Amino acid sequence: MDILFQILCNEQTLRNAWLLVKQKNSAGGIDGMTVADFEKEAEKQIQELTRQLKTRSWNPEPYLRVEIPKKDSEKRKLGLLSVKDKIVQQAIKNLIEPYFEKIFLNNSYGYRPGKGHVQAIKRTMSEFRIKKNNWILQLDIDDYFDTIDHSLLFEKVQKLIQDEEVVRLIALCVKMGVVNKKLKWNEITCGVPQGAVLSPLLANLYLHSFDKFIAVRTDSYVRYADDFLIFCEKREQAEQMQKQATKFLTEHLLLKLNDPVITDVKSGVEFLGITLKRTGITISKSKRDDLEERIRSIVLEEGGVTKKSLETLQGIRNYYGKLLATKLLLQLDRVLREKLKDLVRKQSLIFPNKKILGECLNVITFFAEENNKKRGVLIAEILSAYTSAKQEKRSKKPEKEKNKLLIERKKREYQKKEGEGTDLVINSYGCFVGLTNRGISVRLKGKVIHKNPSRALEHITVVVKGVTISTNAIQYCMRNKIPIDFFDGTGKHYGSILSPSYMESTLWEKQVIMPIERRAYLATKIIYGKLKNQLNLVKYFHKYHKVLAGALAEKYAEVCVRLEEIIDKVKHFKQRDGNYVIPLSALESAGAVQYWGYIRLLISDDGVEFESRERKGATDLVNSLLNYGYALLYARVWQALLGVQLNPMLGVLHVRQSGKPAFVFDVIELFRTQAVDRVVISLIQKGEPLSMNNTLLSDKTRKLLVQNVLERINRYEKYRGEEIKFSRIIYRQAKEIAAYVNEEAYYKPYIAKW
Length: 754
Fold this sequence. Notes:
The chain is an alpha+beta fold. It is built from 29 helices and 25 strands. The strands form eight sheets. The protein has a four-stranded mixed β-sheet with strand order 2-1-4-5, with no helix packed on it. A four-stranded antiparallel β-sheet has the order 6-7-3-8, sandwiched between helices. Strand 9 and strand 10 form a beta hairpin. It is elongated and about 100 Å long. The protein starts with a helix and ends in a 13-residue tail after the last helix.
């Protein structure tokens, strides 16, 4: 067995490669495994990779084809490797790179240890300062990575690496096919995949013979990947060098050049995004405009500057910070500061105070070191803009405030009218639901009782027996994605009619394979959101009972302290030994005891009896109202989960049972307090005529409850800085959970304001 291959098959070799892959934390490939997924069973995975290499059975996955935008509306095609295959390629690279580095010339700067764009630019500037260099020949290869000839490449690899098995594995990595997200296969007959670990190293080897060819003729030569600069004393020499270089690249390496450019040194040259002249390093106006546009694209949210925005700023700093003159960096910092001031002025309301905003801004690093040394002063300048914006909003003229209130009142009036047309509730026995040219109509004993246009209709709720629905009406509802929900007299949701589009492109498989750590995270966030909403509803009702002293005031203080303690435990909850459901459920139950204890005392003087919370089989008024309201909410959550392609049965907190929508029971916890508890308590405290008919809610009570719950579901409120209906908040939360399940984003639960 060859020595290099023996080393490659050592577990420690793969461990070292894994650490480098983990550090980069880049996207995975076609198998969907992320770096975080691999880390959970890293040792087991490494042992399996070692076994496959030793038995020569390792067969990489195809590259996943993705396209990213580049200039001039073109797209760069990348081939993404699976995490496992990255580790093997990284291990091979670690072994063969020293052999490559022994022969590589100093003129080459791209993708090499200890080198990079900074060194390439500095070397270029040293060539500018050599007086005899008066002309520059600039060359670059058209689609270089995609046009490398395989026969020539492997011939070069075999001469350098005297290990047949390692050479075979390199060829396997290069020639492995590419698939798109629909799994369509494409052969690789030439080129090396951009995005593969080995590709830059192999690309440098392919051009090594050209480096030697030029070095014999001149040492005033700089190459970064497939971008070349050759300095000459006379224009004639540059023209001759162009002919020789073109002939070598096209005939010996079978590559195609883009149009060469010969430039007078006095005019300077743009190389690697930097404008270089004998007078120094700068950037073109178009490049400066591009950088300023990227800086102005940053986003400030409630949690601070977004991750993507920080990556944009850090990328600019890493690339240009060590090269550009301080004057230019100060100009970019000026753009950054003005953008941050503009953001904090416009979004001053999302930050409760200056201290919190200051903590959010502390992650910002300026481009110029001069500014980083006085960053405290500059941050204070930005915070001053925040303070001014706050004061300006507080000092608006009363007339403007009055107009604002009048407009707001009218807006609420029309939002309520909008909500009234959104839901159709059928609560009379013997109704017939049909379709007219105006939309859905409802008749009772031949008389039309609902004939308004249905353009705003989003939902139909049937809460009584004996209702008939025509197939035309059903077809209309399915075509317009209008769900129809059915409830019995106890409020039990026993069925729905839904459009088949709810079942398209599901995430059910990803829910099934979701690791326990991610399930525990999601369950914890849901319980955290539920407890925070319970605490906030307690505070909301207490706000209107401040005049009450005695038992309620004492209970309020006690409940707030206890709930805060429980919430803090949930916030810092860590999943251990695969068990998270029992300890989380215990914290949830402890919170419920405090919450319902306060509610019991709150409504104790309102003429209703409420001892404790009961779910199944409740016969008292308060629990019956709550259970019926939850059933209405349950249908909305169920449909929202289906609408974002999640399986309502696969819960993360409630125990899975056949036929039981455990995930609905999980997610509904976030919305109970605002959609139902608040409505029921308000009806009780307003003294509305609420009654029972034996063990069931009376018809009038049921109709009143349905009307108020649906009105609440269609009411607007602020969510992530935007004013939307509560029903849309439910859907948006489901969508955010789906993004978490699909590993696109972290999940943040809905927490109501009070």
